[in-house]
Amino acid sequence: MAAITVSQILTLYTWFPLALLLLFLLLIARHYQRSTGEPTRFQWFLAPLLLFGLAAVRYASIDHLTGDILANALLGVGGLILLGASLYLYRRMSRHR
Q: How do residues 39-67 score in pLDDT, each as one tens digit?
């Protein structure tokens, strides 16, 4: 049985603050949707949360932080979805300003 390295622990640990930020953003979008009745598509924020988590697990499992095509693709797709969801939410919330 292989020992868990400090690098693996730190890789997985960095996902938790990111997950908290994404959940906070999801809750803001959900609150805005409930209070105004406008659709915010807050469920879209779950996809980056899952994809970033899978990438962190992948990086921790190979114990290497660079050069993995699958983990890099997960981060890239998660980032694009997060960008799209954030821009959509921003436009919804600042449309009448």
A: 999 999 999 999 999 999 998 888 777 77
Whether the predicted pLDDT of 97 surpasses 70: no
Q: Are 11 and 65 in contact (CB under 8 A)?
A: yes
Three-state SS annotation for 40-68? CCHHHHHHHHHHHHHHHHHHHHHCCCCCC
Task: Give the torsion through C-alpha atoms of 47, 49, 54, 58, to 10 deg.
Answer: 140
Predicted confidence at residue 55, as pLDDT, reads 93
pTM of the model: 0.87
Q: Which two tokens stand for residue 70?
A: 């699958």
CB atoms within 10 A of CB 79: 13
Distance CA 83, CA 40 (A): 14
